[in-house]
Amino acid sequence: MTKQCTEQDRLAAMEEITLHNDTGSDITFLGQVCAEHSFFDDETGVLTQQKLYATSDGNQAYSVVTTDGKVKEKRAYLIKRDGNLCKINNGLFDVTVKAMDLLMVVKGLCGISESLRANDFFTQVRDSLKNAANG
CA 11 from chain center: how many Å? Predict the structure, then answer.
């Protein structure tokens, strides 16, 4: 027998999270980590840690922490989807961009071309976010 995840179950799995931010105010929300990635750049000696969160109200939050062992930089963003637009807040400013324009930038940064493989990648990311938000 499969148990249905209720809204109460989903919210119980979330916790209050505060993302510290050197750019603006810290960002606090109820949510959970849904993806994370760390990498070390041998040329610059910088370690980067990225985390993507699903929030209790259906938005996403993103944090980036970089350090070279001496200096640590912390950046945080809250991303709200509003129809065809994405509203991005960095704790100081709000920026609104078309969702498709944001996806094109992400594809470019990831080195993904307009192919079926790229569509599969973003379908997988969207499904992962949806699953994390639904518990």
Answer: 18
